[in-house]
Amino acid sequence: MTTEAKPSSRERLLEAAATLTYRDGVGIGVDALCKAAGVSKKSLYQLFGSKDELLAASLKEGAAAFVASLLPPADDGRSPRERILHVFEQVEVQAGVPGFRGCRYLAVQIELKDRRHPASRVARRIKRNLLSYFRAEAEQGGADDPDLLARQLIVVFDGVNARAGIGVDNLKGLIAPTVATLLDAADMR
Amino acid sequence: MTTEAKPSSRERLLEAAATLTYRDGVGIGVDALCKAAGVSKKSLYQLFGSKDELLAASLKEGAAAFVASLLPPADDGRSPRERILHVFEQVEVQAGVPGFRGCRYLAVQIELKDRRHPASRVARRIKRNLLSYFRAEAEQGGADDPDLLARQLIVVFDGVNARAGIGVDNLKGLIAPTVATLLDAADMR
């Protein structure tokens, strides 16, 4: 694609689904999605088969950006401890951006209820990769119990994202001491 | 009300709203609510004015049970530390019950998006009371920074509720060490 190319119907639908479900929830209607994308309903069904599959595809499409926005580059020379703290520093930055509503992959799973929904499956997989990242860094850093530490870190990740996302905590002065306490308790380098 | 009395239309609507929104989300339709309650739409609007107000009333109605299911009796003779741990022991028990979907007051706020929605306001108030409970016990127990500890505890509360509620963590072996680590770090008695 050249820089001149206009986004395709597929790209516009993915973008509309990502933006509108994050802002308004998974209950957003097909009409609203098509209107925002400037695409006919017929095109939506031809391209994705269903709204459910469009939601799943839009979450999958956003996974790389999600990872890039949170994780440091591989082998960046920093310690595993710093590489974990990096993720939480990004959360704190993101929470300060207008329109922030927390982790979209957590929200989608809470909203959909149905764990077999295609979008719920995609969201679960993406978050499992974040858990694996924490687990790998914890092991690398010599944590006493890498499994436990990784679960604790993703609980904090989901907890602070959720609370900042609904506007009940601004996270100031909260994340760094919390994560440091958990890393220290695990004897993490 | 005698033990023979049948639940009123109002009570049946409150119960239906609590059950169905917890299971299916806030997008549940007025028809489904009325059908489950065995009440006409006209009655719903006469009694509550709107679905939004019915949701808010059902959350408010459930607040006492929520508190009773989590908090120990006042002045039960246990230490503040034990009185905090009690809450989290209850969460672990609740998470093992079929149909558990996490904290309804967090879910409602995430699902509604609109922070001014009457049900969102009620949910926020109920959770603020839980934060206040943690804050008061933290202060009573001589925590170094009661505000920080209370915020950390409710982050863990929301994080573990959310993750168990979507079925990605069974909480086994997770909550007790996490909370103990935070209490220890705060020098909490």
Estimate percent helicity of chain A: 55-70%
Which sheet architecture does the biggest sheet of chain A show? none
Strand content of chain A: under 5%
CATH topology of chain A: Tetracycline Repressor, domain 2
Query: How many H/I helical runs of chain A?
Result: 9
* Number of distinct beta strands of chain A: 0
**What is the general shape of chain A?**
elongated
Q: Which residues of chain A form runs of ≥5 with pLDDT under 50?
A: none
Q: Oligomeric status of the shown chains? A: homodimer
- Gyration radius over CA of chain A: 18 Å
CATH homologous superfamily classification of chain A: Tetracycline Repressor, domain 2
Assign the structural class of chain A, choosing from mainly alpha, mainly beta, alpha/beta, alpha+beta, or little secondary structure.
mainly alpha
Please trace the helix and strand order of chain A, writing H or E for each element.
HHHHHHHHH
CATH architectural designation of chain A: Orthogonal Bundle
Q: What is the name of the CATH class of chain A?
A: Mainly Alpha
- What is the domain tally of chain A? 1
Most extensive chain contact? Answer: A-B, 43 and 43 residues
